[in-house]
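Ticket closed. Logging final result for ABC transporter domain-containing protein.
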Amino acid sequence: MLEVRNLTKSFGTAVAVDNLSFSIRQGESLGLVGESGSGKTTLARLILKLIEPTSGSIVYNSVGDIRRECQIVFQDPQSSLNPRIKIGEAIGEPILIHKLLPKENITARVAELLGLVKLSKEHSSRFPHELSGGERQRVGIARALASNPKFLILDEPVSSLDVSIQVDILKLLKEIKLQLNLTYLFIAHDLSVIGFMCDRVMVMKDGKIVEENNTAEIFSAPRDPYTRQLIDSTLKI
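Final structure:
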């Protein structure tokens, strides 16, 4: 579905993404794991075309528009939602922007999307501050789904939530992926979350991919010392 070829992004003398090449197959969940500052979020922004690469290319193998078909769910649902806009308007906005439905049909579609993330249609009349953290993240997921994407980037989508809520959101994301036949790039620093969600894992350090393998192999036989360090730190928690 997506091919990244020799991708590099520099900010002055700092190299955030260093000559990366990889692909994402349609329908898979690819995990991207690494410590803060490893370049994960910069890579996500490059894929979304929010920033331009210094060199290299990203090839989206679809006849569609990557700006509509690739969406992101952010780490902090509080900061990703406009506090002055009601939930229904926030979810409906991408539908308006991409002209996916007539205006008179948007309310029904918003209610459908809220149901998909296990929220009631009454949530559409509330403001973000009236919701819990878990509810706001469900709204963030619904908003990402509003443009009918094929590919979701999930950038630390549960790290700001309580552990019990994390499990509910991860189960919901798995359910939605199967229901809508989505492809995921799941970004996290926690390998236990990656292990639950992903088919394949890339380990990123200092802008480079130091190891890539299927999830079972990464956990049972990590090759790189950095990967072993991440696994050891996960198991100690």
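The first helix runs from residue 40 to 47. No further action required.
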